[in-house]
Amino acid sequence: MTYIHSAGNSPLGEALLSSGVTAIAFEDVQTDEGRLPLLDVDTDALARAEREFAGLRTRYSSRSNLLELLPRTDILLNAVMWPRGRKDHLVSREMIACMPAWAVVVDVSADIGGAIETCIRQTGHDEPTYVEAGRRHYTVANIPSIAARSTSEALAQVTLPYALAIAELGGSAALIADPALRRGLTCIDGRMVRRATAEWYGCDWLGPTELEAMLLTKAACAPRWIAAPGPC
Fold first, then answer.
1. Distances in Å between the alpha carbon of 151 and those of 15, 36, 139, 142, 155?
2. Which domains are seen in the chain, by residue range?
3. Which end of the chain has fewer CB within 10 Å, C or N?
């Protein structure tokens, strides 16, 4: 259970499937209201940022605003989680070409072929950048690991309730009980669950009915642990 980004990393996806693990992606956990609780998504963030930082000005990322601002943008930083399987882009290759020659594109989401069309592969800390469309791109899939302690403390505040539910109920029962957690399920027992990711790999996937039946069976067969008193 972590940030997985499996659709952009073939070796990772193949390892998850071949190992048979139950993999839950933080970035895909979604409430019934559409919130992504493990990505801190907040529609009031722009207004709060302007109040906190004097001189800061924000705009919505509409196409018209991007076309106006990109020709004088030194750093384009993307944190938009683009729906998997969507074929269009928030920022096209042509829009990137409008940026200054020295401009840098930083894709925090690291979604391949996602919001930014020219983000064509994920990178790591050893070789973090590449050049595409004449602009340098930084697409490290796990940027926060640079500051591991502080990011871990912040992340734990939102992920701990899910971890406790899994510890208390067991993985399968927790997935049955919480639709938000279940939406984050990437794969289980060597089968892909997310349809968009499966299509990216060209493999089949578990439909909702088949997945529910599998989880119910696994939950019924899971061992029950009973704490017994013993010596300290």
1. 26, 17, 18, 11, 6
2. 6-38+147-221 (3.40.50.720), 40-145 (3.40.50.720)
3. C
